[in-house]
């Protein structure tokens, strides 16, 4: 089978052939030198991106591993953010821009909306705990922010008097906390794997991406579905959408807060976590920081995890609808198809 590099070289060659015979030798030499420099530069950029998906934004590098470089891409293109950001409406055709760039003819993004301001600043007041030498705000010290139930937790945040690094009630706020790597597989594409043993209960990473309004999430989902089926602006082919919808039942029990996080074009390592029908080895906890309205989805190890094991969670309810796309989770409980979440 022809390797990808060979195909690219042939394509390069086809573009140059009609021009090269007409160039005088000096220009030819200069074109050749430029091509060599560009090739070296592109190899260096590829190597840097493949060595660390987070580009230095996490405390540990997150490398891409491709068991068979000829048949797998060297890395996946997206903008890395260790923390959630507030997304803005994307222009039509944005799905063809994995790096989030705009074509010159595309309109500029809208200014921050009321939604953005709410997401950032609403919420209840924080704590007045005094910082001490050995830290503060541990739940044992009765910090009013410290609360942890099965699937919901609160942590200190921007509304609190304390701050990192002393505060001990911010354990999910330091970015991805364990060594992980992004590994290619033919059937599932990229997946996140443990590069160290992880003890049950340890915080692994949060699902960082763009917080979206429901209208924008629905609009983007339609675009991703179209692109995945070969139409729309994505040009068809492989589209790995990573748009998650969370529903938080508020304490009154009468209302439900819906949170849309899209990590497709802007996200962190969690965007590579694949689905497993048996629930996987990660459990999601909704963590709210005092002073912020929107909760964050944080993943904790739901059992001890060995080095090299793939990290997975369940994308949807077992009894819910499915997408019709095959699931390759390999668990004995596999339902055969990826679950579908109504967006
Ligand atoms: C959030 S992305 C996960 C990362 C993705 N594998 C990639 O290469 O970017 C979700 C997509 O991964 C693929 N995927 C996740 N879990 C899978 C599974 N169990 N079987 C097959 N494909 C899976 C599907 O294409 C899905 O739409």
From TrEMBL:
Note the PROSITE patterns from the entry: POST_SET, SET
Q: Could you list this entry's UniProt keywords, alphabetically sorted.
A: Chromosome, Metal-binding, Methyltransferase, S-adenosyl-L-methionine, Transferase, Zinc
Q: Where in the cell is it found?
A: Chromosome
Q: Which Gene3D superfamilies match?
A: SET domain
User: What are the SET domain coordinates in residue numbering?
Assistant: 178-316
Write out the GO MF terms.
metal ion binding; methyltransferase activity
Q: Keyword check for Zinc, yes or no.
A: yes
Show the InterPro entries listed in the entry: H3K9_Histone-Lys_N-MTase (IPR050973), Post-SET_dom (IPR003616), SET_dom (IPR001214), SET_dom_sf (IPR046341)
Q: Does the keyword Transferase apply?
A: yes
Domain annotation Post-SET: ranges: 323-339
Which GO terms fall under biological process for this protein?
methylation
Top-level taxon in the UniProt lineage:
Eukaryota
Q: Which SMART domains match?
A: SET
Cellular component, GO, one term: chromosome
A Pfam family name for this chain?
Answer: SET
UniProt-listed PANTHER family? HISTONE-LYSINE N-METHYLTRANSFERASE SET-23, HISTONE-LYSINE N-METHYLTRANSFERASE SUV39H
Q: Could you identify this protein by its name?
A: Uncharacterized protein
Origin organism is Spirodela intermedia (Intermediate duckweed)
Lineage, highest ranks first: Eukaryota, Viridiplantae, Streptophyta, Embryophyta, Tracheophyta
């Amino acid at each position: 089978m022809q390797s990808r590099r060979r195909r690219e070289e042939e394509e390069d060659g086809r573009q140059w052939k009609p021009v090269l015979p007409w160039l005088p030798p000096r220009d030819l030499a200069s074109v050749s030198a430029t091509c060599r420099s560009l090739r070296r530069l592109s190899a260096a950029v590829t190597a840097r991106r493949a060595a660390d998906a987070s580009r230095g934004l996490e405390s540990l590098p997150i490398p891409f591993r491709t068991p068979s470089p000829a048949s797998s891409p060297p890395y996946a293109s997206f903008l890395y953010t260790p923390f959630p950001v507030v997304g803005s409406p994307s222009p039509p055709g944005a799905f063809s821009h994995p790096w989030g760039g705009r074509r010159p003819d595309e309109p500029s993004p809208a200014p921050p909306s009321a939604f953005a301001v709410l997401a950032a600043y609403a919420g209840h007041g924080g704590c007045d705990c005094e910082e001490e030498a050995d830290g503060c705000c541990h739940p044992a010290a009765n910090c009013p922010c410290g609360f942890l139930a099965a699937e919901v937790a609160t942590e200190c945040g921007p509304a609190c008097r304390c701050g990192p690094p002393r505060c001990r009630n911010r354990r999910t706020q330091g970015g991805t906390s364990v060594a992980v790597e992004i590994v290619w597989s033919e059937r599932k594409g990229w997946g996140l794997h443990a590069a160290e043993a992880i003890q049950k209960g340890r915080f692994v990473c949060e699902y960082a991406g763009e917080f979206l309004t429901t209208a924008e999430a629905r609009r983007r989902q339609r675009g991703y579905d179209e692109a995945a089926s070969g139409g729309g602006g994505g040009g068809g082919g492989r589209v790995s959408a990573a748009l998650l919808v969370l529903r938080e039942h508020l304490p009154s029990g009468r209302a439900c807060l819906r949170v849309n996080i899209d990590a497709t074009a802007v996200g962190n390592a969690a965007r590579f976590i694949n689905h497993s029908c048996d629930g996987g080895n990660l459990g999601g906890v909704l963590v709210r920081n005092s002073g912020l309205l929107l909760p964050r989805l944080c993943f904790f190890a739901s059992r001890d995890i060995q080095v090299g094991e793939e990290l997975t969670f369940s994308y949807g309810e077992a009894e819910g609808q499915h997408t019709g796309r095959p699931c390759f989770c390999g668990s004995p409980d596999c339902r055969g198809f990826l679950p579908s979440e109504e967006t």
